[in-house]
Write a structure and sequence with these properties.
Homodimer. The chain is α/β, with parallel strands linked by helices and 301 residues long. It folds into two domains: 184 residues, 3-Layer(bba) Sandwich (FAD/NAD(P)-binding domain); 111 residues, 3-Layer(bba) Sandwich (FAD/NAD(P)-binding domain), CATH 3.50.50. The strands form four sheets. Strands 1, 2, 3, 4, 5, 6 and 17 form a seven-stranded mixed β-sheet that branches. A hairpin with a 4-residue loop joins β5 and β6.
């Protein structure tokens, strides 16, 4: 059997694409080995009708809906190799399975690496977060800490001021913020520290103290940090797709990559994290683009 489409990744982009393609009566092989980036998150927000849903519950409901369509198959295995064929793709898995598909959709998201600071792993997703839109409401009016050694920390701090006026911004070293930016933050009583963080202290997922390399400590109840992200797509050498400045798969805005038959959706295209609703929408758009291409090919043969 040759599938109409193989989807790599079972996050919101891949699942929504599978739903749209299933409803279009396309034969779909959905590869998902259940290692979502947001597994540590206690709840996801900003998705209408799903605000506050846990990642596990989101996946459960999504798979229940997607697999109602008989042409969609779930393959809970890791893809280890992909080869471009004259008319499609050959996908190999860790278990030795091989399937062939006319179209391929990458929706494999991002690989996340947290800062190498003691204590961060026990707090991330509970009282330390990245996205203000996802978790700012839960930390409103609390004493917050922002850690980012990138100039974007300035914009991040200004955003967080909407949720809390008790902010301390740490750049983990000098030269990140300009004097003008420091003055703007200071005018709003936002404290800037250029010291390096040596540890986060807390228990039961709740941040209590931030410790600096000089031994000083400050009390905080929550904060925002910036992990490093790398698109999980892989197989660039084998497939030859173009990437953007952040390492994401370059697409035309409708999910189509520079390789014929290869599509991408969600965070794997941006190289940057996004909300569930945004990734799901991207999956829907890519699926419609795939279905249109399959339709045009059927009528031109």
């Amino acid at each position: 059997m040759i599938y109409d489409c193989a989807i790599i990744g079972g996050g919101p982009a891949g699942l929504n694409a599978a739903l749209v393609l299933g409803r279009a009566r396309r034969n779909v092989a959905l590869f998902d080995h259940n290692k979502p980036r947001n597994a540590v998150t206690h709840a996801s927000h900003g998705f209408l009708t799903r605000d506050g849903v846990t990642p596990a519950e989101f996946r459960r409901v999504a798979y229940e809906e997607v697999l109602k369509y008989p042409s969609v198959e779930h393959h809970p295995v890791e893809v280890t190799d992909i080869r471009k064929l004259n008319a499609g793709f050959l996908i190999s898995t860790h278990e030795g399975e091989q399937i062939q598909a006319r179209k391929l959709l990458f929706a494999s998201g991002l690989q996340e690496t947290l800062p190498d600071i003691p204590g961060v792993r026990n707090l991330y997703g509970k009282s330390l977060f990245y996205c203000p839109y996802c978790d700012g409401w839960e930390l409103r009016d609390k004493s917050l800490f922002v850690l980012w050694d990138h100039p974007r920390v300035f914009q991040h701090a200004k955003l967080l001021y909407n949720w809390s006026r008790d902010l301390i911004v740490c750049t983990n070293g000098p030269g990140i913020l300009t004097n003008e930016q420091k003055q703007i933050l200071a005018s709003r009583d936002i404290v800037v520290s250029e010291q390096s963080v040596s540890a986060f202290h807390g228990s039961d997922g709740k941040l209590r103290l931030v410790e600096f390399t000089d031994g000083s400590r400050i009390e905080r109840t929550g904060g925002f940090i910036a992990p490093k992200w790398v698109p999980r797509a892989g197989f660039q050498q084998e497939l030859g797709y173009a990437v953007n400045d952040l390492g994401g798969i370059l697409t035309d805005g409708m999910g189509k990559s520079t390789v014929p038959g290869l599509f991408a959706a969600g965070e794997v295209t941006t190289g940057f994290p996004s909300q569930l609703i945004v990734a799901a929408a991207a999956g829907s758009i890519a699926a419609a683009s795939i279905n249109l291409e399959l339709t045009e090919e059927a009528f031109s043969s």
